[in-house]
Design brief:
This protein is mostly helical. It has helices at 10-17, 23-37, 57-76, 105-109, 129-143, 153-159, 163-171, 173-180, 186-191, 244-255, 267-279, 311-317, 320-328, 342-356, 361-364, 368-372, 386-396, 401-411, 421-438, 449-463, 471-481, 503-513, 522-529, 531-544, and strands at residues 42-49, 82-89, 149-152, 195-197, 212-214, 219-223, 230-234, 240-242, 262-263, 289-290, 293-294, 335-336, 488-489, 500-501.
Length: 546
């Protein structure tokens, strides 16, 4: 079920979009301006993938973000211009390094230097390493329902799709060298060529200098490093591939790519490839450089290292929509991609979804869920938050979904796994997350004498409440008990003018009672968990510290 959307014509929606400063619209506006200068009947969006390791979330992020820009462009052009999204895999690239996170490393090491599609897959027999990683990427993109076409570098080179542009690269060889050589060190300059011939004897992608070129014949000549003999080979038909900066430019020019974004670490490469593309007679695409994802220590995530989060790991602990939200937000800011970012993104996705119905049409175009769902966000009732579910699991040591549903059903009669399948999925995510990350680090701290007195007072106050007290009544009770030193907040007075209550009070409750640093709104937690259960929890904490 989707949220109610005011009826608007394509022209009315376009008019609103033109005033929006949401980043997908800003990107799409630049693409519209490009087309005004050079009109075309079709616009090609491209994303790149290097299948040298298992697919990671950064690759997915590029497809997700490009899809958002594509949809924004369709709105700005009233869908009158055909668009395509090409997910391009550089699977003809030479296998340079054995990844740390795959089996059969010794077997893989025997194939270093060969095209990725000529390297056996260490996990499954019968397919290549490149083809297997391509399949894993495609399966994930299909899971998300992306509208894309997959392209293999190996297939494009071998089929002749690049032949005309490869011959053009041979014609402007000197121009390409003039662009690249100033950026290289002395040793690299001595051996550099935009063409990398594939050895006819070993199958290795060779990085060797050219000793001769024949533009008319469409061939290059080099010294085979294994035989020390001269070898002449055509640049067409898959006999060579291009160095990656030249390869990027080749692709842009040959396919007429209009839009491609890239990581911030590739800014210089984008500029160089753009110059080569222009030398080939093409126009470099529009796009922007997004910031990199970082692991828990602030290092760049890497397919070969396997640090950071994998696609499958995120989906074990949270919904696909929460991952899409993570990708949407602040693409030009570096962000940690580790397990502790998951709960926030799960709950904030639902907050954006809940707020969507209260927004006017213009505000909706700046709401992330509009872009995540191509202008048609679903309507999902989520009675509890992910953080609250995690706290329920932690407080009850729940090992199965039935236990959690018992709490939820008492809090919201009539709500069940059958009526709320999205919530049922989130229950499973919460149990997985708790088992893997919360339980191993769960540590209860001892209350101070002042905190023991406050906890006893809270216990007595809760015992005077009705068993079906509302979350708001419980929260007010908890708040009033905390209105004492050392928990007073003199800088933020309450509505009645008296000093407010600092977060230290609520953090203490979670640290002492649940063995975790923070949690959801305490009144909401007790309402779902049960007043009597909360009283028993306090009794247990007081007994432990007696």
């Amino acid at each position: 079920m989707s949220t109610s959307e005011p009826t608007m014509s394509p022209s009315e929606l376009r008019a609103l979009a033109e005033t929006s400063n949401a980043w997908p619209f800003e990107q799409a506006k630049a693409l519209v301006a490009r087309l005004k200068k050079s009109p075309k009947d079709e616009v090609l969006f491209e994303t790149g993938y290097g299948p040298s390791g298992l697919p990671h979330i950064g690759t997915f992020g590029e497809v997700a973000r490009t899809t958002m820009v594509r949809h924004a462009f369709r709105v700005l052009t009233e869908d009158k211009i055909k668009t395509r999204l090409l997910a391009f895999s550089d699977d003809m690239d030479g296998f340079r390094k054995v990844p740390d996170n795959v089996p059969n490393k010794e077997m893989l090491a025997k194939h270093l230097g060969k095209p990725l599609t000529a390297v056996p897959d260490p996990i499954e027999e019968g397919v290549s390493f490149g083809a297997a990683n391509n399949a894993r990427l495609r399966a994930f993109l299909d899971h998300f329902g992306f509208d894309y076409e997959f392209a293999s570098s190996t297939d494009y080179y071998a089929s002749g799709r690049f032949d005309a542009t490869l011959l053009r690269m041979l014609e402007v060889y000197d121009k390409v060298m003039d662009i690249i050589l100033p950026t290289l060190g002395p040793d690299r300059r001595a051996t550099y060529s935009p063409f990398l011939p594939v050895s006819k004897t070993t199958g290795v992608v060779l990085q060797v200098p050219m000793i001769a070129r024949d533009v008319k014949a469409g061939t290059i000549t080099y010294i085979d490093p294994d035989t020390n003999e001269e070898v002449t080979t055509p640049v067409t038909g898959g006999a060579v591939k291009c160095q990656w900066k030249a390869d990027w430019a080749l692709r842009w020019a040959a396919l007429g790519v209009d839009y491609e974004m890239a990581g911030k670490d590739l800014i210089d490469s984008v500029k160089l490839s753009g110059k080569i593309c222009a030398a080939l007679g093409g126009t470099p695409p529009e796009g922007f450089n997004y910031e990199l994802f970082l692991d828990e220590n602030g290092g760049k995530i890497s397919k070969s290292k396997g640090n950071g989060l994998t696609i499958d790991e995120w989906l074990r602990y949270a919904s696909p929509e929460s991952l899409s939200l993570f990708m949407y937000r602040e693409p030009k800011a570096a962000k940690r991609l580790f397990f502790d970012v998951i709960p926030r993104n799960v709950d904030e996705y639902q907050q954006f979804l809940d707020g969507y119905n209260r927004q006017d049409p213009k505000q909706r175009l700046s709401n992330p869920v509009w872009h995540l769902h191509a202008g048609n966000p679903p309507q999902v009732d989520m009675p509890v938050t992910f953080q609250l579910l995690l706290t329920l699991v932690s407080s009850s040591n729940a090992e199965n979904a039935d236990t959690l549903w018992g709490f939820i059903g008492r809090y919201r009669p009539g709500v069940s796994a059958a009526t709320h399948p999205k919530l049922d999925a989130m229950v499973g995510y919460a149990i997985n997350y708790y088992r893997d990350f919360v339980a191993p680090t769960k540590t209860f701290r001892e209350p101070t004498e002042i905190e023991r007195v406050a906890l006893q007072d809270l216990r007595d106050a809760l015992s005077r409440l009705a068993t079906d007290a509302s979350a708001e009544d419980i929260q007010n009770t908890v708040y009033e008990i905390g209105r004492r030193e050392p928990f007073l907040d003199h800088k933020k007075p309450a509505k009645d003018g008296r000093p407010g209550v600092s977060l230290d009070w609520f953090n203490m409750l979670y640290q002492v009672l649940l063995g975790q640093e923070k949690g959801p709104r305490f009144g909401s937690f007790v309402a779902v968990y049960g007043v009597q259960n909360a009283i028993s929890m306090i009794d247990g904490a007081l007994a432990r510290s007696a």
